[in-house]
Amino acid sequence: KQQGMIGNIYSMGLALQALEATVKFYAPRKWNCAQAFSVVYDHDYQQPMAIAQVLPALVGRSYLEAADQDCASTSLSPPLSLSPELGTTEVLGALITVRYSIINKLQGTHFDYTTAVQVPAGSTLLKVLQEAAKENPNTFSFQTEQTFWGPMVVSIHGLAANSEDRTYWQFLSSGDALSQGVGTYKPRDGEHIQAVFSTY
């Protein structure tokens, strides 16, 4: 598990803002500021919403202080280094193999299917899902919805998430929930990704 992570990579920006803004007034337990910021520094942010939420924390401000910001007299030191081109993919090289499972033990007819697909190194998890659906559409078909955070998987194998039932598709690697979405997470060669129909 990644030390310093607060929730997942999407929640880090607001969490850091909140902790920095309230540390003088509310401190139920110590938190390692440097460790949390190292998670942010090491991540290649590509989603505009995530960047918008993490930037205030990186410059030591919060949304609450936005009205008082004097842009003319503010300089960033050291300069920030985030993803220079939003939404672009890195140069793809050799093929990697990713195992991909879809599991439903929650509703209706239960199922558990696994496949292995090859994708170019550096591909996102969304590419893995697309390749699995291309090779076996009857089993691995899926649907996404576009959100501010990128594509969100809402249906796999004809089984749709439902807010009334409080169900969703959760993506795991080695039993741990992924800290990024399918549009930005890049699986490693030999990694086993599981999509598990879950409830919250």
From TrEMBL:
Residues 122-194 form the Transcobalamin-like C-terminal domain. It comes from the Eukaryota. GO terms for molecular function: cobalamin binding. GO terms for biological process: cobalamin transport; cobalt ion transport. It is found in: Secreted. Pfam families: Cobalamin_bind, DUF4430. Its main location: secreted. Keywords: Cobalt, Cobalt transport, Ion transport, Secreted, Signal, Transport. The keyword Secreted applies. GO terms for cellular component: extracellular space. Cyanocob(III)alamin binds at residues 8, 53, 178, 200. Belongs to the eukaryotic cobalamin transport proteins family. This is IF factor. The gene is Gif.
